[in-house]
Amino acid sequence: MDSPAYNLRSRPSKMAPPSPSPAQANGSAQQQPRSLPPKNRNSPYLPTPTELLLLAAYPALLLFGAAFSAISPQTRAAPFFPGTHAHSQEPGQAPSYFARKDNLLNTLFVKRGWAWFTLAFAFWVGTHPALAAPRARVRAAARWGVVTVFWVLTTQWCFGPPLIDRGFRWSGGRCEVVEERVDEGQGDAGDVFTAAACKATGGRWLGGTDISGHVFMLVLGSAFLMQEVGWVVLRRRGRRELEERSVVMGDGAVKGAGVEADVDGARVGNVVDALGLGGRVVIGVVVLSLWMVLMTAIYFHTWFEKVSSVYSPLLSRILGGSMLTVL
Which residues form a coiled coil (predicted)? Predict the structure, then answer.
């Protein structure tokens, strides 16, 4: 005869499994998004595949613009002046309205470009519900500050002349008329160190590689806006499981950006609702930027200057992105 202990061990249990707690039931019914596992996580110091795809739009515009310029009869027939980095500005000789420096978009948008980027970003941060928390807005302002520093040092001031003007001088450029006056003892040597000062004194900025400060600004600013808006839209649409930006936490740990974001907000089903009004304003500014980058690729600067103008802000964006991962 089997012992009672043996019967208890061998007999299958007929007890019902424990019922899930209310919290577990709710959790299974409404799954919360989680960060990607570490093995699938992107490096916090490099662009993600989606960011690389977006950044590739700028070289694509450059190549398309160069090809269009080479095959367009109007562009090929119009005289090009290396000293001004442009075709003839006469209305009857310019190959296109956008080949003229006084076109409306260049005057009102490009020449005030960083102000437009700043206003669009401020409107986005101030109106989108995903950035309603004070901490999120402070961090967004810090990221804008990092990108602005790159723009200032490259195009405005870098403990003297900006990096673009320093590169022009290092590549053999000079302010032609002013340097002749200096040699004759009639000018100030300080006038020849920046493009703005050279043009203000009637000189010509000639001889070197003149990277377009406007293109640098358009590429850097629009890439920054696309990155800022894009990740928020992905989270709002519940698509963060496809790809996620990584960030460096205060303790040095690398985690998905979702741990720092408001992932419990309402999900929306289409891109327009996810963008909100602020996002649509940002998209408008980005589209204008891309259009003007294309116009520059077709009508302005030499080939090497165009390549430098596009790739230098992309490099700055990648380097700045490694800094933004901690902000």
Answer: none
